[in-house]
Amino acid sequence: AAVKFGGRFGYVDAQGRYTINPQYDAAGPFANGRAAIKLKGRHGFIDKGGVVAISPQFDDALTFAEGLAAVELGGRWGFIDLSGKIVINPQFEKIGSFAEGLAAVRMGKRWGFIDKNGKIVVNPQFDDVGNFAKGLAPARVGKLWGYVDATGQLAINPQFDDAGAFAEDLARVKIAGRWGFIDKSGKYAINPQFDE
User: Fold this and answer.
1) Which of 55, 57, 99, 110 could form a disulfide with 131 if both were Cys (CB 3.0 to 4.6 A apart)?
2) Is residue 148 classed as helix, strand or coil in its secondary structure?
3) Which are the contacts of 12, defined by CB distance < 8 A and separation ≥ 6?
4) What is the distance, to the nearest Å, from the Cα of residue 87 to the centroid of all Cα atoms in its chain?
5) Angular region, 152: left φ>0, alpha ψ -120 to 50, beta rest
6) Are the C-beta atoms of 88 and 97 separated by less than 8 Å?
7) What is the pLDDT of residues 84-138, one digit of tens each?
8) Burial label, 17 (beta-carbon count in 10 A; 0-12, 13-18, 19+)
9) pLDDT value of residue 104
């Protein structure tokens, strides 16, 4: 786990012993055998032994997911593979990590989704989106959230004040200040009744 000590980040094991001494300006969690680190204002990746796997060269970087990590260069986002090779050129204003083979991208003021080849598979048309899980992703149209499928079709019409990703076949949704849970058809499995 990443920890901060004396203004620097390093990693400890389950017993709290340093596995990688604090030496980074920032450090993220390990995923796909790599962790994003920041050193001297640049972002790169280390392996679990603390060896630099991808030298710090990016303006920003997200955690690896499905073998790819989002990186920022010159104000635009793209993706690299585990070796550090750019596989989707930095061209997007904002970006999310891959989930179920798709990643959220923002072009202009709208969000859509790309596949691992960088091809737009859901045209940017939403005001905001979340990650795919169980075949659906939260998508905001105006002020209300619904759910979109991998083809870009609304599977659950926008009607919620907030919405989370599906987990164990249910998704958290907020309406009228209360949280509840819906199933994949959009029906309430647990009526909105919780503060959080």
Assistant:
1) 99
2) strand
3) 1, 3, 18, 19
4) 18
5) left
6) no
7) 999 999 999 999 999 999 999 999 999 999 999 999 999 999 999 999 999 999 9
8) exposed
9) 98
- DSSP letters along 8-39, please? EEEEE-TTS-EEEEEEESEEEEEETTEEEEEE
Instruction: Name the amino acid, one letter, at 125.
Output: Q
Q: Both tokens of residue 181?
A: 């849970």
Distance CA 77, CA 56 (A): 16
Q: Which of 57, 93, 100, 95 is nearest to 79 (CA)?
A: 95
Burial (CB count <10 Å: 0-12, 13-18, 19+), residue 113: buried
Tell me, what's the pLDDT at 50? 95
* 8 Å CB contact between 61 and 29: no
Contact 169, 135 (CB under 8 A): no
Q: How many Cα neighbours within 13 Å face the side chain of 102?
A: 25
The model's pLDDT over 39-58, given as tens digits with 9 standing for 90+, comes to: 999 999 999 999 999 999 99
**Which amino acid, residue 79?**
F
Query: Phi and psi for 128 in degrees, rounded to 5?
Result: -165, 160
> How far is it, in rounded angstroms, from Cα 26 to Cα 172?
31
